[in-house]
Amino acid sequence: MNAAEEEKNLEGLIKLGFMKMLDGFPVRASVEEKVIRELQSMSLPSNTVIVAGYPKTGSHFLLQILGQLKFQRLYDIGEGDAKCTSLPLEFQEFPALETMINAVKADPSTNFVFNHSHAYPSHLPKNAKVLYISRDIRAVAVSGYHFFGSMEKYKVMFEHYNIKSADDYANIVFQGKSSYGNMDRYDKLWREAAAKEPERIHTVTFEDLKVNLQRNVEEIVKFLGLENVDIPKVVDGSQFKSHDANFHKDAKITDTASSSETLIKRKGEVDSWKRELTKDSLSLYATLFPERN
After folding, report:
1. Measuring CA to CA, which of 172, 196, 228, 287 is 20 to 30 A from 68?
2. Cα separation, 57 vs 55, whole angstroms
3. Which residues, at least 6 apart from 26, have a Cβ–Cβ distance to it below 8 Å?
4. How many other CB atoms are found less than 10 A from the CB of residue 68?
5. Window from 77-86, 110-119, 268-277 with minimum mean pLDDT
6. What is the pTM of this model?
7. Please, which domain of life does this record's source organism belong to (predicted)?
């Protein structure tokens, strides 16, 4: 799928003012172009890393691992419009970006992880080290249905597509019509970027993290150039049992700055979609992605 095809695919949400195209990539209408331009031109110091991925692929699993590796988050620093929230990086207010960059430059001895991002590769700092995570689109669809279905701001999309069930939402995601665009295109572009710059972009999958956590932690540690890491301790602290224990305190995985929104806690299962999607949805998946079966 190219930019023109994607724009046509998302025509309804664009007409409703819920989405827009920027440089040929779909973004939420609430994302300010000047924020994207600032991110593109930003030069990050070596003590920072960004976690990127399509929504519901497991960004917060990586954030949990980075937390165990003593990377500090930037939530709740600054004041007013310059305050960094738990929103994805591209959803921050423009002044908050300056708060972030000043914070990491002021403390070069500390490692920081910028807020997770759902942006495309070309919309993020060109020198940033990035951990990119992908996941089975069926799991993404089921998790996204529960997560976004609870939020007032996503009612526009749910009403537009008349989404009433996980199957309804999955059909939209499979066809690349959700509010974050075509996941297949998004993943392809990130993997192409990682292939060109493996020293700057490291890719993982949610499923492999769950099954081979220690190996993945070792690879992440090597990618980040960390030394003297207690790998078993990091692995133990990154398990979902640990994640759950500190979920409300540390994870802050809501896609909103509003305290009125419901925080949806998922179990992080690899194949929960098998219980929630019907044969019709799985048949559509098989038709659209025959190479994955």
Report:
1. 196
2. 6
3. 6, 7, 10, 19, 20, 179, 180, 181, 182
4. 19
5. 268-277
6. 0.89
7. Eukaryota
